[in-house]
Amino acid sequence: MQENVVILDIDYVTFEEKPVIRLFSKKGDENIILIDDTFEPYLYVVSDDVEECISEIEDNIDVVCVEKVIKKDFQIESEFIKVTFKHPQELAKNRDALRDLESVIQIREFDIPFYRRYLMDRDVIPMTEVTAVGEELETFMDLDSTKQDIKIIKLTERLERKKEYPQNFRILSFDLEVRNPHGMPDSAEDEIIMIGVASNFGVNQVISTKTNSEDRDDFVNQVSTEKEMIEEFVKIIKDNNVDIIVGYNSDNFDFPYLKDRAKILDVDLDIGMDESDVKFIRRGYSNAASFKGLIHVDLYLVMRRYMTLDRYTLERVYYELFGEEKIDVPGDRIWEFWDNEGEELDTLFDYSLDDVVSTLKIAEQTLPLNLELTRIIGQPLFDVSRMATGQQAEWFLVKQAYFDGEVVPNKQGSNFADRASAEDNEGGYVREPEKGLHENLVQFDFRSLYPSIIISKNISPDVMTLGKVEDEDDYNISPEHGIKFKKSPQGFIPSVIDKILQERFRIKRQMKASDDPQERIALDVQQQAIKRLANTMYGIYGFPRFRWYSFECAKAITSWGRQYIKSSIKKAEEYGFYAIYADTDGFYAKYKKE
Question: Which of 235, 302, 315, 322 is the most buried (most CB within 10 A)?
Fold first, then answer.
């Protein structure tokens, strides 16, 4: 059978000792889970005696296949040994054993998660449409097509990507209000008193065990008990086949609290596509609430990367984005508003609904950019929304390396010396602003300064040379430090940035030529996503845990940046303009009368 579906989520399970990829997908309102048992984990081995090393691996390690392959290592074609394992756990278990073999110099790409490897190797992009061809199954392990109202397809051919069109996803925001008379809520004692939900498909309500004024009846959904409140929340998600559920600080508060209360009250939070419950998985420094096939995005984490603020409360972020004050109730008085009833209870209902409506508006403003980053990077939205910008850029480069036939470098670690060196970089040129009120200013700004320097000066570890060279004309030499970069061939990272900037300029030309307002909005989101990735590349050169970390590259970029901005200021002075303020990639100047 053949189906066109949109890929939402991915994981893998073990069946008959083999890893099986599961792709949680949708076709309209129909839930479809694709099964693929044809993919196997692998890594690369570096050795100066390939034949001897292959024999040693075969004699000592339990593997599926060992083969010699030609791949690029910093653009130089080299012999690698590709070692394929039966299961990701076997790969993890045998990494150290491989390292200890006498003929092994290094192992590479051993730390790429299995599901991420699948997405890259099979060129599957989450949140986009694919054509799936396979055999329909009634059941597979704990999946049951009838019981769970899903379609199960075991793939017989590789997925084929369809031409990308903007997808319309069903988004639900939610928020809990808790009666907390003792200060910080305690899930063992303090009940949930309201669950607010708002959506882009018409469901906007506050579920509660109380109601009050008649004019609140249009959005208050009164139930008898806290247990029924949670059950009603679960029912809304299931009945409306939600694709993306969003909260604000929901990883740290709402979902952990909801899980605790549901367990106490014996309620199943079985809202995953396979009817699974919430699971908390490690992402960064905290745990993230995850559901199979239902994408959870915590907007608090997104907003900390989306904008720079003094505080990241929902009220502060909403005001910054929309210029409007939202309803606010002090957290330590929520229980009083609940107990006092009357006008204060009405205010609490309004506050609860306003929270989720505000969260939904923030989601509608910011999710398009995150969806576009998901498509560009090629990793799940759940992961991308929790990645730092440097991690997003790195996974984008890992994906590009695969298509360029490059074996990616290992992470170099982050010891004290690395951190000290990174902090020692002088950074961009800054001239403090002249005090006073200034009029008739002109602004000078470099377009994509650091990405442009990386491309024009070919700044990349694979073409960098330290020390003396025979002919300096063949090199771009950085000011101040004299770090040298070959003019050809083009380095790996400059080549990637060059491609994506050219794509951005193409999109901007298309956006300018379009007469369709919706198309212009979609194209603008695409070019913004590309701009964010390109502008991140400089910063991660100086991050010790970046796979392509190079303190020399970071120093060279900023030294050229300082040179360009200073020379531009000097040139402006020749025409009678003098700078009153400068920062990294631009300056403000005023005309000085003779």
Answer: 302
- Residue 266 CA to residue 358 CA, distance in Å, equals 31
What is the predicted pLDDT for the residue at 417? 47
pLDDT of residue 413: 64
Per DSSP, the residues of 230-284 read HHHHHHHHHHTT-SEEEESSIIIIIHHHHHHHHHHHT-----STTS---EEEEET
SS3 state at 131: strand
The pTM score is: 0.89
The sheet carrying 106-108 orders its strands as 65-73, 76-84, 42-46, 106-108
Condensed to tens digits (0 to 9), the pLDDT of residues 15-28 reads 999 999 999 999 98
Say if residues 306 and 366 touch (Cβ distance below 8 Å).
yes
Q: What is the spatial distance between Cα 112 and Cα 123, in angstroms, rounded to a whole number?
A: 15
Burial tier of 227 (Cβ tally within 10 Å: 0-12, 13-18, 19+): middle
How far is the C-alpha of 94 from the C-alpha of 311, rounded, in Å?
46
Helix or strand or coil: residue 54? helix
Q: Which residues of the chain have pLDDT under 50?
A: 415-420, 422
- Secondary structure (3-state) at 286: strand
For the segment 419-462, what is each residue's pLDDT rounded down to a tens digit? 445 456 677 788 888 888 888 888 988 888 888 999 999 999 99
d(CA 494, CA 386): 26
Tell me if 554 sits within 8 A of 560, measured CB to CB.
no
> What is the residue whose two structure tokens read 């508003």?
337
Spatial separation of the C-alpha atoms in residues 341 and 339, rounded to whole Å: 6
- Contacts of 22 by beta carbon, 8 Å cutoff, 6+ apart: 10, 11, 12, 13, 33, 34, 35, 292
